[in-house]
Specification:
By secondary structure, the protein is of the alpha/beta class. The protein contains ten helices and ten strands. The protein has a five-stranded mixed β-sheet with strand order 3-2-1-4-5, sandwiched between helices. Strands 8-7-6-9-10 form a five-stranded mixed β-sheet, with helices on both faces. Helix 6 crosses helix 8 and helix 8 packs parallel to helix 9. The longest helix is centred in the C-terminal third of the chain and has 27 residues.
Amino acid sequence: MLILGIESSCDETAAALVRDGRTVLSSVIATSVAEHAVYGGVVPEIASRRHTESIVQVTRQAFQEAGLTPREVDAVAVTSAPGLIGALLVGVNFAKAAAYGLGVPLIPVHHVRGHIAANYIAHPNLVPPFLCLCVSGGTTALVDVKTYTQMEVLGATRDDSVGECFDKVARVLDLGYPGGPPLDRIGRTGNDKAYPFPRAHVQNSDLDLSFSGLKTAVINLAHNARQKGEPLSIPDLAASFSAAVSDSLVPRSMAALSLTGYDKLAVAGGVAANSRIRADLSAACQDRGISLFLPPLSLCGDNAAMIGCQGYYEYQAGKRGDLSLNAFATMDISRG
């Protein structure tokens, strides 16, 4: 089954052609990140305009790279939630028109379910059930992936997502946007014990997380040092911050594995590219005999291949959209 995947939830406009949920024939991404970097974060209006300008071209390029024609497509899958509403609407309306024009089914896909599905592309041997740590710009959650389409959130952040925390810390340190890559790169040379940042615990909810206190602690430290003219080691701060994030994510992932009894852990989302988190998860899983599935860096960020992949399993489960399909800024993954 050949599926055209469309993704436009944030600042990447993407199209891909995926066969049978596992084989990526082409994947094209156009990003507007350079324009957003000027403002230190995503500007929704700019993102929507760039999606409108790019979506036809990236789709054409996807067909060209795959050596296929639109008439060979069996279905169109599109991210319908969650994300920036204006950005989502561009992709949803394009996908509705494409599906209608081609006379094929339309499949709405939950964005985070798509990130989880990126692991199916990278690891053909991965099948549910398993636990997935979802860490991105908008989501931080531990998800029980019971089947390809039945999922339950076991724990999640009560405030900031990990990705948002990385971006805001990078902004206060003048490292640019997005914040994850420069913090990761600079932190590799730093002392992760130089700054004793807090590790939050949510009372009576062992699997939930909180990052607003950590973010505030880093920002206050940086501001106070600058106001007093005191030296501030950016590598040490970046390393200490990444260690604090990892110390929140890894133990809860292990606790969730114990709760479910699973011996498989997958990681999904843009923050899955962070080298400290990847290393600490690898060590923890090795100690416990857990199989760890990490997507390659090329599949950590937003892309349409993951949407085409998850779209295949949603189609198999009977999920369909029609011309009334709308976009939603928020949606629980269990409803996706």
